[in-house]
UniProtKB/TrEMBL annotation:
A Gene Ontology molecular function term of the record: peroxidase activity
Record keywords: Iron, Metal-binding, Oxidoreductase, Peroxidase
Keyword Cell inner membrane: no
Designated name of the protein: Peroxidase
Domain of life: Bacteria
Species this chain originates from: Dactylosporangium darangshiense
Amino acid sequence: MGADVDLHDIQRGVLSPRPSPYAATHLVFRIDTRADGRELMRRAAAVVTSAADGVSPLGETWVSLAVTGHGLRALGVPQESWDSMAWEFRQGMAARAIALGDTGSSGPERWEPPLGSPDVHVVLAAVAPDTALLEAAIDRARPAYEQLAGVTAIWRQDCHALPTEAEPFGYRDGISHPAVEGSGIPGSNPLEQPLKAGEFVLGYPDELGGVQTTTPDVLGRNGSYVAFRKLRQDVAAFRRFLRDNSTGGNDEELLAAKVMGRWRSGAPLALAPERDDPALGADRSRNNAFLFGSDDPDGFTTPGGCHIRRANPRDSAVAGEPRLHRMIRRGAAYGPLLPDGVLDDDGGDRGLMFTFVGAHLGRQFEFAQTQWLNDGVFFGAGDARDPIAATGDGPGDYTIPRRPVRRRLRGVPRFVTTRGGEYAFLPSLTALRWLGEQTD
């Protein structure tokens, strides 16, 4: 099966976990003239890194290019090609805001311009182990767009590993990554069987035996859908919540672990239930090697409502068939670090650039966001939301199972605000060339 997955044609950003530490950037472009947009596609095919390129000239560095629905329209793809794309993709993320919980302060009307607008056509993302290598990668890509008068750069977001190598709330990030059958890239959980390639890349059988395709097949095959989201994190509010709801001392860090499902070091409660184990948290061969359903079905160790159990229920029977909703998720921190001990918001813009990669926008990203993060019905918790990453306004409740009396926290505020986002498609290298060869 491995030989059937064409790594040379798949963009590396689909299958490769990001380096750690890292520097990254997201550049957004508007296509003003169709001819130059198509030329950008042709040039990009020679710039983006393939999944087969495990040894880039710049080390663990790669460039990816994605096209939004508005971008495909600007490129003038045939109507039958447009109609064959996923309907969520054709609608765009802003149009799906109510379903995703992007309302109130997270509503598209409050997003950072131009995110969510018809001007977002192309997203170029680059990631590298450090800033120098990142700038070198961008320099290599620059000729692909800088000399095209009909392509305009309209937005940029730089990201970087924090000094703590954690995300802004203080937790080690980038731990979980699924194994994709036929890719040769190992997953982070040795207890999880590799998933079918068709769960993440079009043109291959998925877990149900179906094959996602497009018209023509060359447009979709070896490509993936992506969801980009800029998520602002209110770090000061999160710190106040932990302080105000703990009894002091070690209880504050235990509460932080109970809402995330991991200690801030990355050590999972499943393997370190009583106290933090920084050595375990830093050990990539062990820090994700656990299940829920067989070891902790009732959530007394890792609460059913905590973030990591909602985002990836693993083998939990209450989640139905989690493999059908498994995603490749990546986060890259942006903005300045809030100094330790500061409990008041300094007004700084900080958070995560979140990226979903998969073949099924509906049953992967949207399902997880609406059914697992923004609701609690699937594990018997009613309308309780994810305490870390739920969207929408208004406080919620959070329950920590324990004997003899459960611990219930009321009035949990929302710590994350959606600042913008978009659905896009990561074409194969062949599809980039095909897009560049289109004529009116």
